[in-house]
Amino acid sequence: MHHGTGSKLAAFATLGLLAGVTTAAAQDVVGTWERDTGASRVRFTKCGEAICGSLSWLKETNGPAKVGQRIFYDMKPNGANKWSGSAFNPEDGKTYSGTMTLSGSTLTTAGCVMGGLICRSVKWNRMN
């Protein structure tokens, strides 16, 4: 009985390793991230070949941002641990050219206007 449990665990461990190897690098950001201010959370999912992100939780629900609103669009791999696409800012209703950079369990998103003259970056911490 005891031996059977051990071999089952070994099989699961092996499966886990294989799953980790076959997962494409672009999926590293998939999951839920919390803004460093604790004000919001974004859930990143695969949208075809790209990554998109929607607000999954908001501390302040009376503002212009709404849960379920998509704020990151068409984020495509652009170098190691980097993605480029579009970012929508509910606070001003504008869409910016956006980038995401992953470093360990921290994701930095940046949105730029006017050809990159004015950029704002936000840090996110991985929830799951």
UniProtKB/TrEMBL annotation:
> Which InterPro entries is this protein grouped with?
DUF2147 (IPR019223)
Entry keyword set: Signal
Q: Does the keyword Signal apply?
A: yes
Q: What start and end residues bound the annotated signal peptide?
A: 1-26
User: Is Signal included in the keywords of this UniProt record?
Assistant: yes
Q: Read off the Gene3D superfamilies from this record.
A: 2.40.128.520
The UniProt record lists the DUF2147 domain at: 31-126
The name of this protein is: Uncharacterized conserved protein, DUF2147 family
